Amino acid sequence: KGLKGQGHQRAPQIPSQFSPGERFAMKEALKGAIRIPTVSFSPEDINATALAEFGEYIRTVFPTVFKTSFIRHEVIGDYSHLLTVRGSDPGLQPYMLMAHSDVVPASDGGWEVPPFSGLERDGFIHGRGTLDNKNSLMAILQALELLLNRNYIPRRSFFIALGHDEEVSGQNGAQKISALLQARGTKLAFIVDEGNFILDGFIPHLKKPFAMIAVSEKGSINLRLQVNMTPGHSSAPPKETSIGVLAAAISRLEQTPMPNMFGSGPLKMTLQELAHEFPFPANIILSNLWLFGPLVSRLMERNYITNALVRTTTALTMFNAGVKVNVIPPVAQAIINIRIHPAQTVQEVLDLVKNIVTDNRIQFHVLTAFDPLPVSPSDHQALGYQLLRQTIQSIFPEVSTVVPGICIGNTDSRHYTNLTTSIYRFNPLYLHPQSFRSIHGINEKISVPAYETQVKFIFEFIQNADADQEPAPHQHEL
Ligand SMILES: CCCCCCCC/C=C\CCCCCCCC(=O)N[C@@H](CC(C)C)C(=O)O
Ligand SMILES: [Zn+2]
Ligand SMILES: [Zn+2]
């Protein structure tokens, strides 16, 4: 299928085999990256010291990358990095690999191993960022370092964009890199960023893992709800307070799910391509969604992860009110984090929210909002998708199914829609429900073999992108 079936791709020239010394160095390099606490709390509250240290660190552990004459390194927005790897064939359109260096905060308690220790225990490297997303950042640079040490000269140019504020919007990292490349007239064949994984154990009755490449991601709204009431003495409380009014409103939101949008968006395509992996009768059911759609849609909403695929979700994430134990509070505020299904828009969802709340004492303030991302191609001509598929088949031969899907979280790649229509969000790693919960949660960890495999994947991917796959249409300026 795809490029593989067209018969003009070449196997990677340099085998993805690493010496014991290289394997030791690559895991130590990741541990060192985890030890630098590059935590972002908000766009205004990032750890600038740690981010600067991280910039020095990657220069130290990947010396060849930073001294190679055909690689240009630029620091953007103070702490993000853009590497331009100039390939030998300017006729091939460049692509971009992405990752980010910042991480979400880690709670003090609950971790088996301190979150910024980077300790290895039982074959796993532990810590914040081991799955999201220092693994990708380090693996990209590591794979390039190893290729350069083997004197590899890429044919196709590519960019490596390493954001430093993905967890808090990407406005100073990815957004600025994107603007810079746009100003330079760059167009990209495709982008690969973090996002989906090889999923294992997420669907009952589906015993085999499958790779899901996200071809879109949900939209998002951060919405502040506020109630102002007259303050007063708590010894003679009014019938309603700002806290009570707001609590009732957001409880209505939590209790009223947004409409089930099953049937619209890329999910149908995902399920149809996955159908043959299921035992009877699920395979027949999924192959005939025209008939069984309502049944499948009901089953999907029963589980909180698959529910996120069929509808817009509403999460109550912040609540603030009150100034003193005996004062009726003048203001109550809550923030809800909404993830928009690909078949809906910001405006449609805001209208639905207001209809559910139906209380004109509530003021709404949109903090940030964007629509769902366009769907990238996944057909046989889609170069980025097919290169991912080809590399998955080579590195994970036991994974027989690769399907397009949506990413329920957001990634920095959304800032690059001005440069390409082909954006793929995929981490070459197995993800189980438990490891899914560790992302932004506790006990985030990556096994040493899984990290080595991620490096191998990128090592082969870069070479696969250099194989003869398309006629050279015209020259591309970097
Ligand atoms: C039928 C198949 C079952 C599908 C199961 C789906 C399993 C989910 C797999 C992976 C999802 C992980 C999402 C990782 C990317 C999230 C990155 C992130 O946290 N971004 C922030 C960005 C924000 C602008 C600050 C976010 O909150 O989304
Ligand atoms: Zn991330
Ligand atoms: Zn994250």
Automatic annotation (TrEMBL):
Gene Ontology CC entries for this record: extracellular region
Keyword Protease: yes
Catalytic activity: N-(9Z-octadecenoyl)-L-glutamine + H2O = L-glutamine + (9Z)-octadecenoate; N-octadecanoyl-L-phenylalanine + H2O = octadecanoate + L-phenylalanine; an N-acyl-L-amino acid + H2O = an L-alpha-amino acid + a carboxylate; an N-acyl-aromatic L-alpha-amino acid + H2O = an aromatic L-alpha-amino acid + a carboxylate
Example of a GO MF term: aminoacylase activity
Biological pathway: Lipid metabolism; fatty acid metabolism; Amino-acid metabolism
EC number assigned by the record: 3.5.1.114, 3.5.1.14
Domain annotation Peptidase M20 dimerisation: ranges: 216-359
Alphabetized InterPro entries for the sequence: Bact_exopeptidase_dim_dom, Pept_M20A, Peptidase_M20, Peptidase_M20_dimer
Keywords: Hydrolase, Metal-binding, Protease, Signal, Zinc
Domain of life: Eukaryota
Membrane-spanning intervals of the chain: none
Biological processes annotated in GO: adaptive thermogenesis; amide biosynthetic process; amide catabolic process; amino acid metabolic process; lipid metabolic process; proteolysis
Top enzyme class: hydrolase
Function of the molecule: Secreted enzyme that regulates the endogenous N-fatty acyl amino acid (NAAs) tissue and circulating levels by functioning as a bidirectional NAA synthase/hydrolase. It condenses free fatty acids and free amino acids to generate NAAs and bidirectionally catalyzes the reverse hydrolysis reaction. Some of these NAAs stimulate oxidative metabolism via mitochondrial uncoupling, increasing energy expenditure in a UPC1-independent manner. Thereby, this secreted protein may indirectly regulate whole body energy expenditure.
Family: Belongs to the peptidase M20A family.
Protein name: N-fatty-acyl-amino acid synthase/hydrolase PM20D1
Organism of this sequence: Callorhinus ursinus (Northern fur seal)
Lineage start: Eukaryota, Metazoa, Chordata, Craniata, Vertebrata
